[in-house]
Specification:
This protein is mostly helical. It is built from five helices and no strands.
């Protein structure tokens, strides 16, 4: 045997689960919005520095670092979409063969354009070309 030590293997990455990520994101948003402001801040007074607050202990720097925000377009929302494997393969093939002619470069862009075109067609067929009004509160379609 040689004197060269075996390299250590990196730990495997966690499997990507968009449902779990969405749940964690919503939980974090709820926790932030549910946290009440201290009384001094509500009254408009300047809060005391952290070192002067009762029972305050400085947190380690590693815990204070916030995760980098995800880049996203303004006024967008995420949706989960499940399609059959056959339809997905059809979309990928269509994208690859028409990319130079259409300029559509991603599956997300393809889906956004498809939704927009279908909405326009249905609005012109069933609502004189005008956008449909939003459904009433509590109505799930």
């Amino acid at each position: 045997m040689s004197g060269i030590p075996e390299p250590t293997r990196p730990t495997p990455r966690r499997a990507r689960n968009t449902f779990a990520q969405a749940r964690e994101s919503l939980a974090a948003d709820d926790a932030i919005s549910a946290t009440p402001a201290p009384v001094a801040q509500q009254a408009g007074a300047t809060p005391a520095p952290v070192a002067q607050q009762a029972g305050a202990t400085p947190a380690p720097v590693a815990q204070q670092a916030a995760p980098a925000p995800k880049k996203r377009k303004v006024a967008t929302t995420d949706i989960l979409l499940s399609v059959s494997e056959e339809l997905k393969e059809r979309m990928v093939a269509t994208l690859e063969h028409t990319r130079p002619r259409t300029g559509i470069t991603s599956q997300q862009q393809f889906i956004r354009i498809a939704i927009e075109q279908l909405c326009k067609r249905l609005e012109s067929d069933f609502n004189n070309g005008e956008a449909f009004p939003s459904p009433a509160q509590g109505v799930n379609l």
